[in-house]
């Protein structure tokens, strides 16, 4: 028994050393600083910004079908279907494309294109007026919405990482559809971070087909009272210092945010901030064909509008063909040029996002939360330890040692895993202390019953642990399952509570059963046979 007891004691000491290392790591800059580097504080303790953003996934669907409109026009022309009109006539149904004016002799050729593998994500039907309607399938819409939300999360995360914000929380927000939760602990400039996160950065370049107009009514009158289905009206300045005007632009962009390979801030020849960009190979070839066909010296000269955040920032004539690089000059400050370059480098958002909620936690509130939480934890632990000493006498020391080791294991686990400690996490620690005491109470009361039944101290300890074990497992497993459910379906602070509670319960099983048993066996080994047990 002595050899087995020594082995268990060595194992407990090894576990204690390992988790102490998890708390402090390799000490540097003092013990306090080492602990701070290992145990990360959450938003509610450190201070920072809490945001809830909504992704407008319908824009991604509209953009995808806009692209398919342009592609379908080309495919029909290649198939010899001339004179057909392709567009989206109902703004409330961005997932539907209408093909009208198909010559009767070309119906078969048109049907072959529409029902081909290139448009397998659409259901094709004939409308009451004889036109063909392509409606994106429900499954395809859902997949696109999911990809849009996932891409938005990754893009926002990359932007935040570029800004150097430590320990950010960026994830789906379970309380609403297509929403993102962003928590930024310890941000120095929350206003700038919010601006970067909320900005769509959906920069696109469109062909100008009309304008500028002073009002929407003037634009409608100039176009026969209706906007062509392949065009759209966009407000903007058109140049630095110009008043707000309205432009008629081609709905399908020539290039957009996802086509940009790199972007860097700079200055033009007049010292104004600008952005130098490079396009992907495919986008560069497409942009070259457009600009070459519409230069000032060509038969069909044209101009292009640079649209950012759904506003025209610059309208410029095309002097020469542009392939894979160019410059964007507008009414930018240097900071705006830097931020826009960052957004284009880290990838454009597939859809715009809007700001639903913000909560800012100041450092003073964070410090107060830490103080109150720590005071509550220490007070609760001291009260429990004193009660155990008074009520269970010598065995209370056993329980108190197990509780202290349980806390060391829990903090060491957080240090190893890089978990973030939140205020609900502290509540989880306090609840873990209560669960640890509950386990000791079950064991100690069972030992008392065995002693009252006339058994020796050794037999009472053995039977006490054996009978209490099943109850302890039952209570801990049910609570761990509850914590797992909270982790899976909760978010932010709720997950922090679930993590500390679940691992604290695992630590309880280790300390209440193994550590307490080893302490009892060590005491019994040193006592004379038949001596009373202080419990």
Automatic annotation (TrEMBL):
Part of the Sec protein translocase complex. Interacts with the SecYEG preprotein conducting channel. SecDF uses the proton motive force (PMF) to complete protein translocation after the ATP-dependent function of SecA. One of its GO terms (cellular component) is plasma membrane. Keywords: Cell membrane, Membrane, Protein transport, Translocation, Transmembrane, Transmembrane helix, Transport. This is Protein translocase subunit SecD. The chain crosses the membrane at residues 373-392, 399-417, 423-444, 465-490, 496-520. InterPro entries: Acrflvin-R, SecD, SecD/SecF_arch_bac, SecD/SecF_CS, SecD_1st, SecD_SecF_C, SecD_SecF_C_bact, SecDF_P1_head. The keyword Transport applies. It comes from Tunturiibacter lichenicola. GO terms for biological process: intracellular protein transmembrane transport; protein targeting; protein transport by the Sec complex. Belongs to the SecD/SecF family. SecD subfamily.
